[in-house]
Amino acid sequence: MGQLDGKTALVTGGTSGIGLATARRLADEGAYVFITGRDRTRLDAAAASIPAHGIRSDISKIEELDTLAEEIGKRGKGLDVVFANAGGGDFAALADVTPEHYRDNFDRNVAGTVFTVQKVLPLLNEGASIVLAGSTAASEGVPAFGLYAASKAAIRSLGRTWAAELADRKIRVNTVVPGPIETPGLAGLAPADQQQDLLDGLTSQVPLKRLGRPEEIAAAVLFLASDQSSFITGAELPVDGGQIQL
């Protein structure tokens, strides 16, 4: 028996990296999994590989989140697990920040998370678990990464507030905090000729002297999603090789 037998889960941004690894782990533990992605070809390939039910959706577009909730609702089973994983960001020093860069970071990471959770809120079964995707960047002062870090600090705050708001429904809300994880998105923060230097620099900052694997974040999300963490809510779980702990 799996830890999530009979449960239904949603993983946003489930076509690669942490989202894909987590969706696969939840499915392996018995959950019926919905995943989202913006690119139909990648979404279909990921859904087939898990297997999962893929729904094309851009979390920065409210109307697409309405469609997402409607599609999940048609199954009639509600939701027991939500991993609000979709998001992203890039580097920009204060002097170079533009309104477009600001909106991109906050629309994806903050508004996207807020309205994803809001739209599926009526579908959440009593005792459901919401896991938000944070970042160690929210606890650091990384030059030129201020908007992304601020957006992830907002996620941490929202997790605490929602945990208090939803406690009467026995819904738990926690935040998983990845450190540098070996994904295409991490390498993609730098131009191709600088990617290895970026990865080497990040590795040097981790006490365990390696990058994390997506499967290690997936294991942490499973813990927060399952009854193994039944007395944990409003918490932040770093999975960072000790980066912001030591």
Automatic annotation (TrEMBL):
It holds the Pfam family adh_short_C2. InterPro entries: KR_dom (IPR057326), NAD(P)-bd_dom_sf (IPR036291), Sc_DH/Rdtase_CS (IPR020904), SDR_fam (IPR002347). Coiled coil: none annotated. GO terms for molecular function: oxidoreductase activity. Residues 7-184 form the Ketoreductase domain. Keywords: NAD, Oxidoreductase. Belongs to the short-chain dehydrogenases/reductases (SDR) family. PANTHER family: DEHYDROGENASES, SHORT CHAIN, ESTRADIOL 17-BETA-DEHYDROGENASE 8-RELATED. This is SDR family oxidoreductase. It comes from Mycolicibacterium porcinum.
